[in-house]
Amino acid sequence: MTTNRRVILSSRSKGVPQADHFTVEDAAIPTLSTGQFLIKMSYWSIDPAMRGWANDAPNYLPPVEIGAAMRSFAVGEVVDSKHPDYAVGEVVTGMFGWNSYAVSDGSNVDRKVAETDLSPSLALGVLGLNGVTAYYGLLDVCDPKPGETVVVSTAAGSVGSAVGQIAKIKGARTVGITSSEEKMALCRDEFGYDEVISYRQDDLAGALKAAAPDGFDCYFDNTCGEISDAVFTNLALGARICICGTASLTDWDPIPVGPRVHRQLLVARARLQGFLVLDYRDRYGPAIAALANWIRDGRLTYQEHVLDGAEAAPGAIDLLYRGGNRGKLIVVV
Amino acid sequence: MTTNRRVILSSRSKGVPQADHFTVEDAAIPTLSTGQFLIKMSYWSIDPAMRGWANDAPNYLPPVEIGAAMRSFAVGEVVDSKHPDYAVGEVVTGMFGWNSYAVSDGSNVDRKVAETDLSPSLALGVLGLNGVTAYYGLLDVCDPKPGETVVVSTAAGSVGSAVGQIAKIKGARTVGITSSEEKMALCRDEFGYDEVISYRQDDLAGALKAAAPDGFDCYFDNTCGEISDAVFTNLALGARICICGTASLTDWDPIPVGPRVHRQLLVARARLQGFLVLDYRDRYGPAIAALANWIRDGRLTYQEHVLDGAEAAPGAIDLLYRGGNRGKLIVVV
Predict the structure, then answer these.
(1) In contact, A71 and A53? CB cutoff 8 Å
(2) Does residue B57 carry a pLDDT above 80?
(3) I need a surface site. Which of A109, A117, A299, B256 has the fewest CB within 10 A?
(4) By C-alpha distance, which of B168, B164, B170 is closest to B178?
(5) To probe the interface with B, which of A262, A279, A280 has the most B CB atoms within 10 Å?
């Protein structure tokens, strides 16, 4: 009998959840009721937001309950259906959690995957929330103009690399901030950044100033913390900053202290704005269509880092926060 | 012979300039050249921005030079003219500095004062940059909708009191943050705030939460610092925050530390934006016309605090920062 291999949150973490906060187990697959369908999962997604979901701190979604399958985006194929809108063989992506088989009534489906000429795993990355995050965070919040300079933190990451490439497509000059020599080379050679800077240096602010003497018009921020502090010393007049994530600071209870940004924002008449892709739920379609076309045209590239099997999932969030992945981190189920 | 009584910046301050950083002196009035006119000043304006102008720190204008008349907005009457566009008897306002008589070529004139049915001193306050700051900072940056809740720091001040009243005119609910019982009564009785809170209490965040259980949709921030920190704990989804001033923190070199705002902005998908009224130079007219009409209709009220003569000017900026004024602080020349 087929069972659902799932990974549950077994204890609460304060910072980044570690492997021992999770338990892998097998559970029975419920019989389908009318209006339900069964998804056989292909891939689970590992995303920075999962830290927040596992913690018991104020967030835009309630925390995952202890004993429940970890909340996660996933992609899979419909293998049985008593739902009129979902047919066997269709590929769907949504918040199905760390389950190898999941029963859905459609409410947790984000979309049917239509771009069947491309790998279904892309629905979790560059054609999923990462790509859509890059698309709307950059184009709606930062709104770069041709000739402006855009700086991206975690420039080689699955969101950041798309941001950098979309900014180039829109005619901006791009500066990428990343860590290792390996990722710097990736940023230059694969993602086409005009300038690449490692944050592992004594004078990051000086390096940023040298890379953009007139200041940054747009900043797509995935990190907060000291990297962000350095960028804030070099804002152009009218700068637009998208807060997409705060990956460099793992604990927000109590709120960490840092340089107050108000005066820098005032002097530059700059705008600092929080962005959550889930607010754009009704507008995913046009972004995915644009991204898929750029992939087909060879203007947008991506990297995937695939972990093997449910047993690899518990340590995956920590791997992500330690920067151990090379590209969008996914688990093949 | 008439002389120009002026107040010069005689030494550099680090924080708020004190009386002994200035010297009162008499200087000759130059003979007018073609294209110039002479203004006999009626009032000088005392504004928070003057601290920044006196300091040698990065700002949106270069610092005032030692030995020069202090930079200041002022209003006065044209008493002699060799300029085709300025006639004797016209009232003008602009950045004429702490001079009792100033020669101008028109380049430092903000506008001719047309609303001659109202006191010319209003051109330095509610019909000057304070009123226009309130108007555009609130309506352009915060953009309050009817039924939303707007919180204002320095609610009884010359900018804040106008912000609160304009927000009410636009159909919002208003919460004012101020200091003393006297100012609280002023906020309630004169400026019509729905709720008034003193920041001089142990649990400001709790009081703010009680005043707006669903959070603040708009925050017009004149203070930064601990007041702002408390407001940030109670942001509504999609909140818009206008950084107009940072009056509670007098020293920005080095940048003071405080709670990092990024996560709060991200969770609320809120927007924090720096505002400088000088960017709206081309749009002062419509704002002043609207403000003057609200004054004539009795929907917008204001207070003035008048100091007597040039000798009162050197201590005036410190008086403003100590909160010793009751209404828009001006010097009658």
Answers:
(1) yes
(2) no
(3) A117
(4) B164
(5) A262
Using a CB-CB distance cutoff of 8 angstroms, which residues of chain A are in contact with residue B58?
267
How confident is the prediction for chain B on average, in pLDDT?
95
Q: pTM score, two decimals?
A: 0.85
Cα–Cα dist B216/B235, whole Å: 5
Backbone angles phi, psi at B45, to 5 degrees: -100, 140
Assess whether pLDDT exceeds 90 at residue B58.
no
With both helix axes pointing from N to C terminus, report the angle between B158-169 and B129-136 in degrees, rounded to the nearest 10: 40
Partner-chain residue, chosen from B221, B257, B269, that has the shortest CB–CB distance to A257 = B257
- pLDDT at B274 exceeding the cut of 80: yes
Domains in chain A, start-ordered, CATH in brackets? 3-125+303-332 (3.90.180.10), 129-278 (3.40.50.720)
pLDDT for res B247:
81
Q: Is A261 in contact with B256 (Cβ distance < 8 A)?
A: no
Q: Is the dihedral of CA A35, A40, A46, A51 positive or negative?
A: positive
Terminal CA-to-CA distance of chain A, rounded, Å? 18
Per-residue pLDDT, B14: 84
Q: What's the Cα-to-Cα distance from B170 to each of B163, B164, B293, rounded to whole Å?
A: 10, 10, 15
Contact A273 B274 (CB under 8 A): no
> In the structure encoding, which two tokens stand for residue B35, read together?
């294209």
